[in-house]
Amino acid sequence: MKLRRAGRIAAATLGVSLAVGLAACSSSPDTLSQQWEDASDKGYIAGDGSTTSIAPEARTEAVEFEGTGENGDPISSADFAGHVTVVNFWYAGCAPCRAEAPDLIAAYNEFDDQDVKFLGVNTRDGEAVSRGFTEEFGIEYDSILDTVGDRGVQRAFAGKIPLNAVPTTLVLDTEGRVAHRVLGQIAGESQLRTLISETLDESGS
Q1: Is the pLDDT of residue 118 over 90?
Q2: Contacts of 200 (CB under 8 A, 6+ apart)
Q3: What local confidence, expressed as pLDDT, does residue 204 receive?
């Protein structure tokens, strides 16, 4: 019930959030997107685990993106059409990313037989490091390598909702629109399960 109330409050204040973003645990006033642009090596930017939930009628249009996975395969938003999609922004040296990996895997396994897909977006690492993390934790879903250079995937999502922390986890509805955002480490599998289930319920899945 606390999560649902927090979601309603966050949805009501979304306009403010979009305008000013949320504070990150960093002394720099720059946004995360600016730090990505500058290829900052300050270490991870920690969020506070806060959740923003957006009512269907208040959501932006679908996020369109494309990139290359850590196995060299092309990946685009079209691959996730019609599915509730969990998008997790991470990199291997990020301590909260490592801490939340088992919860992401547990949720992935729980919803494996439903209309839910998962995608990682690695914001810093090369192929070898990214794949090493994937193998270490036994992650079965792919991650786009969206590192120094174009950073097109991060740009696409940041254009719809602020990405002010690593990790950040988004839940997209079946139309590819952002329904929920968690800034920082997720509070556990149960939190992610609730957000996914609520989004599935919207589509009757």
Answers
A1: yes
A2: 84, 114, 115, 116
A3: 74
